Amino acid sequence: MREQSYLILLALAPEPLYGYGIIAAVKDLSDGRVKLGPGTLYGALDRLAEDGLITRDREEVVQGRFRRYYWLTGPGREALEAETSRLTALAARARRRLAGPRISGSPA
């Protein structure tokens, strides 16, 4: 799973969000490292919807601006949980390898 897709699913886990809310949540979840532009976001949302991982929740107009909210589906939550488990296991393996003995003469 692409990092951007993972972060979008993670942003939607607690509640439905609209475009700007997703962009802000992804930026926050990644400590500012991942900044989604509208084109990237809506392309990813379309792919995630086609895959059945998210769905449109509702639409509304706020101060003359259109907002379309997205929600994580059951399969989306399952995919998010599976990817979180995979990343957790990978991080644990990385910690073990980094804590292992270093071969003498190897770069630090």
Automatic annotation (TrEMBL):
Signal peptide: none annotated. SUPFAM superfamilies: Winged helix' DNA-binding domain. Residues 8-81 form the Transcription regulator PadR N-terminal domain. InterPro entries: Metal_resp_DNA-bind_regulator, Tscrpt_reg_PadR_N, WH-like_DNA-bd_sf, WH_DNA-bd_sf. This is PadR family transcriptional regulator.
